[in-house]
Amino acid sequence: MKDMKPKPSQMPMQMQTPTPIPTNTRTALPVHGGTDAGPPVTCDFSTNAHPLGPPPIVLDAVLAADRQRYPDPAYTALRQHLADWHGVERQRVVPTAGGAEAIRRITLAAMLAGIRRVCVPQPGFGDYAAAAQALGLTVVPCEDVAAMAAAMDLPCLVWICDPCNPTGHTLDAPQWQALEQARQRSGSRVVVDQAYEPLRLHGASALPPSLADQVWRLICPNKALGLTGVRAAYLLAPAHDDWRDRIAALAASWVLSAEGEALLMAWAQTEVQEELADSHALLSEWGQEQQRRLASWGFQVLPGSVTNFWMAQLPDLGADNELDPELDLDLDLGATRRAVAPLQPLPPVPPMPARPATTTSHSPGDVGGAEPLAPVGPLGGGPVGGGSVGVESDGGPQRPVLPGLHHTPPTTPAALLAALRHHGIKLRDATSFGHPGWVRMSVQTPASQMALLTALHQVLGPHPVARSRAVSPSLKRPADSHKDPT
After folding, report:
1. Are 65 and 259 in contact (CB under 8 A)?
2. Which terminus of the chain faces fewer neighbouring Cβ atoms within 10 Å, N or C?
3. CATH number of the structural domain spanning residue 196
4. Which of 19-28, 193-202, 204-213 has the lowest mean pLDDT?
5. pTM over 0.85
6. Contact assessment for residue 42 and residue 444, using Cβ atoms and an 8 Å cutoff
7. Residue 220, Cβ neighbours under 10 Å: how many?
8. What total number of domains does the chain contain?
């Protein structure tokens, strides 16, 4: 989470007040990127997982996991391995079945300890609020560090995501200092979600080592390792904390599968960490190119992300943009992309006439004694010479004239996202973060980027000249974001 209040010298883009995040999460699952029950996805920009997939060492370890036996329920060897890696005592390592399970378990421990207020970043990962609301706790969305520190006027459970999902922003040293002062003053318990620390492409964490030993830290390697289907993570408890035994006791037996244990063992290896670090430059290069290409279609990127993902405002679908006078060589669609609208699916072929019971001789072109079929015009547009396809002649051979192709581009963000999904492209709708008209996007391979650009051409029509908005994109915060939305 990052303090994103615009400086006085900046004129933030005027947006509608963000839609309040739904609070009835007792009956609805939180919204996430990645796999869902919708149409098939071939290029997924909605997940923040590493686009290159797992390092071979990690994949081999997961595939070689012993599925015929229970893991050690205490995970003694794993906890010692991770403790040695982080330079802490083994008792401070608490395995969890992924980040979401850790969030639920810590929130339950907070409630059992008497805490009734939970401070969450806004925008932020929806499971923080969902876990608290499921237990009837008060949720306080905080737009920035100042709001979060102000909300800590009594003991709270405080969630910090650094780097933050969905913005990719990070806290600086003064912000950490402000949080530490508020923590000490209020007696609050702070959890720092570091799920995307391994995917930090720029700079380094400003979390002071002294504070790192005073807060809970959540580490979820499966995103950086490109194996989000393996649910495995772990908590690093503070050096001195009376919640540690309770949080460990709240776990189900064998909270990690054999595959999860293998993933975490492989994660804490120098070779794996070096391979991940070596990939950062490539991801950064791909990300810059992806943002450049999308900017030409009117996407407005929220600046400041240090990760492989960011938030972007969707194109202004009502803008009367001019057509691009230059060919888009990336798409290589030729001059026709400026003259012809995207092709629509062909109409269904009408059923053939029923074959009569008796067989009669007939000439070519007859079907079972029926009238001869008229020749079909180009693109299934009807008989040549009919009303659908005209015939043009300049004194030479006659040639058919194609009818005008009708194309209605989407006029709402939801329609645009649905249309892209129809083409196998998924973007993460930011409506659940309180910002409709925005998306969270992750860096993907050049091939996936090309597929997205092609889909945009098919959905939106000829490539417009993107007109820069008069102001830089900025998330406008709700005036009462510090209040409990319930």
Report:
1. yes
2. C
3. 3.40.640.10
4. 19-28
5. no
6. no
7. 23
8. 1
Query: Is 166 part of a structural domain of the chain?
Result: yes
Nearest by Cα to 460 from 398, 395, 409: 409
Q: What is the per-residue pLDDT across 160-185, written as a single tens digit (0 to 9) for each?
A: 999 999 999 999 999 999 999 999 99
Range of the domain at 165: 54-275
* H runs (alpha helix) in 155-235: 173-186, 209-212
Question: How far from each other are the two terminal CA atoms of the chain, in whole angstroms?
Answer: 22
Cβ atoms of residues 108 and 250 within 8 Å? yes
The candidate with the shortest Cα–Cα distance to 435, out of 475, 481, 486, 483, is 475
Residue where the block lists tokens 């008060």: 138
Strand, coil or helix: what is 334?
A: coil
d(C-alpha 171, C-alpha 205), whole Å = 8
pLDDT of residue 468: 56
Quick check: is 142 in a domain?
A: yes
b/e per residue, 188-218, with b = 16+ CB within 10 A? bbbbbbbbbbbbbbeeebebeeebbeebbbb
Whether 327 maps to a domain, the answer reads: no
In a domain, residue 329? The reply is no
Residue 58: name the closest of 234, 271, 236 by CA: 271
Distance CA 136, CA 116 (A): 8
